[in-house]
Amino acid sequence: MNVKFKIKRYNPEVDKEPHYETYEVELEPTDRALDGLNAVKWKIDGTLSYRRSCAHGVCGSDAMRINGKNRLACKVLIKDLKQPILIEPLLGLKVIKDLIVDMEPFFAKYRSVKPFLINNDEPGTRERKQSQAEVDKYEEATKCILCASCTTSCPSFWANGQYLGPAALVAAYRFIFDTRDQATDERLDIADKQMGVWRCRTIFNCVEACPRDINITRAIGKVKKEIMFNKM
Amino acid sequence: MFEEIRYKGREGMLAWALHRFTGLGVFFFLLIHILEMSMMGYSPEAYNKALALYHNDFFRLMEFALGMTVLFHALNGTRIVLMDFFDNLMVYHRQMFWVQMLVFAGMALPAAYIMLSPIISK
Questions:
Q1: CATH code for B11-120?
Q2: List of chain A residues whose C-beta atoms are within 8 Å of the C-beta of residue B85
Q3: Which of A91, A201, A218 has the CB atom closest to B4's CB atom?
Q4: What value of ipTM does the predicted structure carry?
Q5: Do A203 and B3 touch (CB under 8 A)?
Q6: What pairs with residue A71 in β-bridges?
Q7: In this complex, do B9 and A203 lie within 8 Å of one another by their Cβ atoms?
Q8: Fold of A104-231
Q9: A72-84 pLDDT per residue, tens
Q10: Which segments of chain A does DSSP mark as H helices, in order?
Q11: Where are the domains of chain A?
């Protein structure tokens, strides 16, 4: 089938302002939006720039705004999209070229919550055991692939780029509720700061955008409760 | 700024936007309200004059709008507080929004009948 794409283009070396270009390509209804972008790049305009790596919804490279909302281009089928398919870069992060945004501020926030196990006990020779109930507490949050769909869909983040954002807070949640971790108070302190959990306005854009179906707002809510009832 | 407004959020984003608008609405009403109450400091006549302004159809309509603004803001705030304390509810956040709108309609319609029928029957 003939598919129309309207793509937001911006090359800082040539363009003063971003602009939209329309392309038409032949695709199967069961192809994905990413296949469409590849068809444009490989057959029509090789200068079109976007990130993609695994192309199977695992690496989280190709998050972008598709028909107005954040999706992974490799997870959404052409037949499910209204034409012309509007493709734009993520909001709230600086556009480097076309659909490529500067992810560094996003990763810096992720690093700021110390997204690694902190446990000062002797590791011993065996694994650190947990019950299924203990794993269930945080398992959902381990599914995050850091695609930034959530953070860049969040109006609080658009309004204030300093806000840690949903993805970093999910990473904090993942360790706060892990019984093996010993830095709970430290992470709760980070989340309790001015740019932490309290900037969440319970809007649920992050939940709608997450390609891994993590209930991020709920995770942030649980951290809020933890700060309120266990830290104070 | 306009790009952000074009973002296609769902019920949660709609509720948040309305919460902000209604919050601003209530804030501006309070400004007018303080102004009108402060007329009392000048003279009883000035205050009565200010209040007399409210006795026309336009202000009745605006009073109804104010009532609806406060009602939405209060119901939405209650929904958020409930979800904050009972996070299991966050799984059903879309449904909760529509329940909230049902409650809103259930309270708004009788209020509309009582507050607006004097204008309509004129």
A1: 1.20.1300.10
A2: 225
A3: A91
A4: 0.90
A5: no
A6: A64
A7: yes
A8: Fumarate Reductase Iron-sulfur Protein; Chain B, domain 2 (1.10.1060)
A9: 999 999 999 999 9
A10: 33-39, 104-112, 132-136, 155-159, 165-176, 184-192, 205-209, 216-226
A11: 2-101, 104-231
